[in-house]
Amino acid sequence: MPEYLAPGVFVEEVSYRAKSIEGVGTSVAGLVGPTRTGPLRGKPELLTSFADFVRIYGDVSDLAFTDGTLLNNTAISAKAFFDGGGTKLFVSRVVSGVNSTNAKGVGSTATFATAIDSNSDVTFTSRFPGKQSNYTLEVHWRDSENLLKIEKTSAPDEGEVVFLEATGLTSAVRTSGISVRVPASRFPMDFRGLVKRSGDHFIIVNNRAQITAGDAATTTGTDMRANGDADGAEGILMSAGLLNSGTSSIAYTRVRAKAPSSGALANGTSAVLNLSAITNISPFTGGASWGTLTTLRGTLDSTGTQFTLNGSGLNVGVVVDLTFPLSALAAVPSSAQAVMIQRNFDLDVYSGGAHGEVIYRYANISTSPTGVRSLPSVLAAVPAKRDDALASPVCCSLAASATGDDVVAALYSLFDPTALTPPPFSVSGPRYLIPLTDGTDGTAPVSVDYGGEVDEVNGNTGFSAFEDIEDIAIVLTPAAASNASAHQGIVVEMQKHCRKMRYRVGIVDARDGMSLSEVRDFRSNFDDSRLALYYPWVVIADPSGVKETIRVPPSGFVAGVYANTDIQRGVHKAPANEPVIGALRFAQDINRFQQELLNPDGINCLRSFPGRGHRVWGGRTLSSDPEWKYVNVRRYFLYLERSIEKSTQWVVFEPNGERLWSNVRTTIEDFLYNEWYNGRLLGPTPKAAYFVRCDRSTMTQNDLDEGRLVCEIGVAPLKPAEFVIFRIGQKTADA
Fold first, then answer.
1. Sign, CA torsion 80/85/87/90
2. Where are the alpha helices (DSSP H) in 580-630?
3. Is the pLDDT score of 237 beyond 80?
4. Complete DSSP assignment for 132-185
5. What gap in Å lies between CA 439 and CA 128, rounded to an integer?
6. This prediction's pTM
7. CB of 175 within 8 A of CB of 198?
């Protein structure tokens, strides 16, 4: 009671109606089995479509276990569940040795795919183990801006390297000492070469020049050094002033990379130089030839004037200076087409090879080892977002000492050389592909893997991963039926889970190709109302497109029938006489006489009927108790029990007296009346359909002293019209 200590008017809110009970959902399924990829531990994520399944657990391709290749029945059954009308699914992935893994999934027989450069500067690792994790990564450089700038100039800057072309040079250009190298008899002459402005002189850079004298003889820079440059000087000196006055034609060409819009260049900026054709400009670059290469990879300096080759991809035997001025490219007009830096990039993840499907894309990654967009940040080992932790397929780590140059060099060492240098006349350009290798599915999981373990530190596995999810009402293990030696043990694990969690039923698959006697023998191992067995397997079109048709376990289809029936009609309706969506036919044709043998044993058959398609033609549990013979009765009572339990938690610690008992009775009666009114209980009146007792007749004084409230509830469930009988006889017409 509130305390009233001062005079005044007080308003209190009270409730005069009983609390309502809300029916719980019954269409949520939990699927346990091996998949191509995905997390192994922790609380599973809710999936609402098959696209969600593929995003986290991989596609429907076969599982390549070391002891044989098997159909991916887990993925196929998930697809069948959603196709059949299911809307909510939880998946717990299992692999052989899953209970020995750590929080990251390391320790099972399934292995991770990796790509590591020779210096271990960059390490790519699949987030989850499995053969699908042998992804192919493709780098798309974002800095696609052409930085190449070619221009003519009349006055080179001090210290600037330009390409000089001059004709008709006279002896007036000679300075002191030049007559030693170029006799007067060779004038007039033509000059082509790299020069650098130094005061009032031009210096021939590294002897990169060609001089054609009046006597038609040609001298290269190397010849000039050999013929008179014994002191190791840089080259011939020419007076800048006299050069302009002592020639009939002169042109200076400046070639450089301009500053990109994304930021200034830094020394060692990764770049690609594209040439229009195979050009031999070796006298001005120092190499014999670049062979057939038209795409050169290397780095730029901060001024954008010097290009340094990385040396990879060069033809065997080619001798080339690794660093040369870009102005040397003016030696062959229009030879240089583009200079593009490689500083930021996008990363596509392909499943099924470089020509497969892009399943994920990372955007705007920097080659810098630090920063918010670095490789370790974007491809984090422990993502900050839950969605990234589930769907991001690859993580990356860098060596502690790795620099930006090291990252670029490591990436180039990881690129597939065949894709990096396409053959001549190829219609596609270079592709920067990084293959991940050594990912495997391990060996086939067994019953102990399906059972799982409770691990509060690393996360639960197998069926134990479902223990923290209250919504699951249906569980299935379709892949278990493909493992003959472990099948029964896995079903036992599912049975234990259903009994432990109390409000769940398990769908059991017969094995493929079982005879009538074999499936009856298998059924005899179980007596439980929370299990339902279905036979035979379903023939469907191969969703992977590899084969025309395949045979798969029925549990995924049946779970879809369960869920769709619950949604469309209600859990009280038997999940039978419903079409099997996606079925082409069944692996075995069951006729009426065969079903007369199987049905009394609780083996639910899938049958095809002319004009009515392929249907679930059975709705029994594996219980020998007549009260729990039917699946819908068992599931309906679980629905009632769970709904009442969940919605009456408010009763705990309330004063245990007549008022509370009355409230409890009213609450439950209102709930059951609604069930009867909607046609889910048998009886012409509410009194015939149910009763609720909660009073002194259900509780002793000892119960009250021990703090127990006892409420007895009886309901009359609707059982399916399994046998429809019409009695027809002759009638004599009345007079």
1. negative
2. 592-598
3. no
4. GG--EEEEEES-----EEEEEESSPPTT-EEEEEEEEE-GGGB-TTHHHHS-GG
5. 9
6. 0.83
7. no
What is the rounded distance in angstroms from the CA atom of residue 435 to the CA atom of residue 639?
Answer: 50
What whole-number distance in Å separates Cα of residue 151 and Cα of residue 64? 60
136-185 residue pLDDT tens: 999 998 877 888 898 888 778 888 888 888 887 776 665 544 433 556 66
Type of residue numbered 342:
Q
Residue 317: Cβ within 10 Å count: 8
State residue 445's pLDDT score. Answer: 96
pLDDT tens per residue across span 363-418: 999 888 887 889 999 999 999 999 999 999 999 999 998 888 788 889 988 999 88
- DSSP 8-state secondary structure symbol assigned to residue 296: E
Provide the token pair at 409.
Answer: 């060099």
Percent helix / strand / coil, the chain, rounded to 5? 25, 25, 45
For residue 252, give the H/E element and its range: strand 249-257
3.40.50.11780, 3.40.462.20, 2.40.340.10, 2.40.37.10: which CATH number matches 29-106+443-628? 3.40.50.11780
For residue 225, CA distances in Å to 289, 401, 518, 624 come to 21, 43, 94, 104
3-state per-residue secondary structure call for 519-530: HHHHHCCCCECC
Q: What pLDDT sits at residue 242?
A: 47
- Asked if 603 and 535 count as a contact pair (C-beta separation under 8 A), the reply is yes
CB half-sphere exposure, 224, CA atoms < 13 A: 29
End-to-end Cα distance, the chain: 80
Measured between alpha carbons, how far is 151 from 233 in angstroms, rounded to an integer?
29
Using one digit for the tens of pLDDT, what is the confidence trace for 461-508?
Answer: 999 999 999 999 999 999 999 999 999 999 999 999 999 999 999 999
Phi, psi of 520 (to 5 degrees): -70, -40
Element (H, E) at 249: strand 249-257
Where in the sequence of the chain do the CATH 3.40.50.11780 domains occur?
29-106+443-628
